[in-house]
Amino acid sequence: MATRKIVQLEGNSSNRSKTVEDIVKLERKIFPKHESLARSFDEELIKKNSGLLYVEVDNGQLAGYVMYSWPSSLYASITKLAVKENYRRQGYGKELLEAAIQKCRTRNVQRISLHVDPLRTPAMNLYQKLGFKVDSLVKGYYSPDRDAYRMYLDFDTE
């Protein structure tokens, strides 16, 4: 079994440009052009109150990443979650999502939200397994003929 490590992408890390390049390649491969952040990835990463975690396997390969933000002290968003095809169904997505949730929790947010295509069953199952609930259906979220569920995870505020 491959060893894996979840890493926070830092602005000054020595392998930052290669990591971002690998993430952009994965982004282009997985997401349709109009959903991809590939062209604006660096801009997204330098935004205040945003973070990116990636999982690296023992051979230095990028297996997946999660991007998140906390626009206010009340809520956070999971903006992207992607795992390379050959690493899917091995727990990488779950580990990344749990790590991002934990990072958001340290900010004392009350809610984390995300959007997901209802047809992406593995993603839907993962989010529900970790406690996310469907809030509403957003018509035409991805494109005129592709909707999204807005999902949320609330934390006890006691």
TrEMBL record:
Domain of life: Eukaryota
Gene3D superfamilies: 3.40.630.30
N-acetyltransferase domain ranges (all copies): 4-156
UniProt cross-references to InterPro entries, sorted A to Z: Acyl_CoA_acyltransferase (IPR016181), GNAT_dom (IPR000182)
Classification via PROSITE patterns: GNAT (PS51186)
One Pfam family recorded for the sequence: Acetyltransf_1
Record CDD domains: NAT_SF (cd04301)
Name of the protein this chain belongs to: Uncharacterized protein LOC125421934
